[in-house]
Request: fold
Amino acid sequence: MNRNHEDSARMLFRSLECRAAEEGANRFEISFSSEAPVSRWGCREILLHTKDSVDLSRFAPGGAGSLLFAHGMDPRYGKLPVGRVVRAWLDEAERKCRAVIELDTDDPDAQRLQGKLERGMLSGVSVGCKVNQWLELAAGDTSPDGRIEGPASLGIQWTPYEISLEPVPADATVGLGRAMEMETEREANSMGNITRNESGTIPAQSAPAAQEAPAAEDPVLAERRRATEIETLCRSFGEDPGAYIREGTSVETVRAAILDRLSQERTPIVGRSSAETRGVQVTTDEGDKLRAAATDGLLLRSGVFVEHPADGAREFRGMGIQDVARECLRVSGENAARLSADEVLRRSLTPDSAFVSITSNAANRAVLGAMQHAPTTYQAWTSVGSAKDFKPTNIYEVNDGGTLREIPQSGEFTEAKLSDAPVAVRQLITVGKMLSFTRQMFINDEFDLILRMVTAHVQAFQRGINQAVYALLKANPAMLDGDQLFSSAHKNLGTAAAPGTDSFSEARLLMRRQTEADGVTRLNLSPAFVLCGAADETKVEQLLHSLAAPEGTNSGVANVFRSAMTPVVDAELDVDGGAQPFYFAAHPSLAPTIEVSYLNGVEAPTVETETDFDRLGIRYRVYGDRGVTLLGYRGLVKNPGKA
Reply:
């Protein structure tokens, strides 16, 4: 379903030209828009020219449409209108918007402009408009009326806001019909939209019928027109115009060559299934495109890997943080070209600004990358839990769940019973830190420091969990049953030895003989993970990957523990001196051991952004809610190690 994005629509500027109208000496007829495509952030944008897509209400009598000079950015003329739009209409046959403009006869500056128009010294016209609704065409899709083929973004509802006389007409060497870059970046339609008379200039007024026919077209202007039209065609369809221009190829020949290439590369619409041809869908608006491209660009610039960068992200990769802020202001309709860095920052620090949203999105995207690359190991063998609040929660186990008893005919079910006392208590804590993107960092273009700090804080959150998990193993705490985690009462403490076949065999035997809470039912568990410090890493790797028993003198003796368990090596398990203990853990789905819990199951830390009047900058806070709980001992075995 189409969605309206009027509030976030950006102002587009498209340059065309004008000619004198027959209605009066100070009136001129213009063609100010067409359906020629414009490239923007790697995507073709086309403004549809149908009666349902163009809203010309601002140019109706009594409307708010203005006639300006250079979009009000010239210091001499400013935002004061130099005339008015007499009327505007849609030329549906040629799919163009046209208008008649009238210059103010009482304004000396307007009369000065009129003189330049009449002498052909000023011929450019530019229109500012806002696109309220976009329709996205994927590659191979077509517009609902079948006229336009994707990929393209179609402006299906747009409104012209003002028309400006342009001080510099479209330059033939540019090729896209762009006006000179003034205070803002102006996107221009192709020169194919230019309305000229036969001489290539703008006449002062309509000539009487008996007047002589105009002279032949100036060869220089003709060549300029040919080069411009060729370059427009080629750029719209990804062709190189250089060879065509140098060889003097006609526009018709170039157009035929492009159509021939397209017919070979693309499947005709005729013969496609209805499912293939109806793939038109509404996607993001212009503001969303900007935020996606700028976010990915900042991440790429800071060295964060982005698997599928948004269209236009590589353009933003080369932009500093001030340039990104200026672009956000420009898209929102503000002129930021001549603003100081301080003023750009002040205007950008509004809670709903695109700039704040982009920096916040970049920080949150950095969180995901940091989570994936954090050097922690607890995830391999612990279980994951969820809590809905921070209150302590007692955890119980089933006393007689080891066997199911036979139910005789018409017999009754017996009810499973929970333990009278809890075996563990789950409780969450909150950890976090705050950091600021200051005014100095903005001016110094140091936003990458924020992303690095966010990454460091997220990894610190992960390391905190890692440390808490292994601290439980090393501390060997007393459980709620009164016995220590690893003890003879729990039958999970092996004889002190170095990693080897004998110590591994003993650990396996201890775990297999563990029973349910009833003390009778055998669990028949086996170790799935070997947990050791860096000091024992080599020995454990040899024992788990060698074909023959590493400590044996006969190479023909098979290594019974080859690939039997997964090694989990973490420096948190190293001790400063003496014997190096190592541990064995069952798979977390078979026996509860240690659980890492999160508030409502949210594992990633939260990054929040705040702007306020007290601080000239953006504050970020990184925080997360987690808990580490020792649930049971049956899936754990410890060997104290041997010095």
Notes: The radius of gyration is 37 Å. The first helix runs from residue 108 to 118.
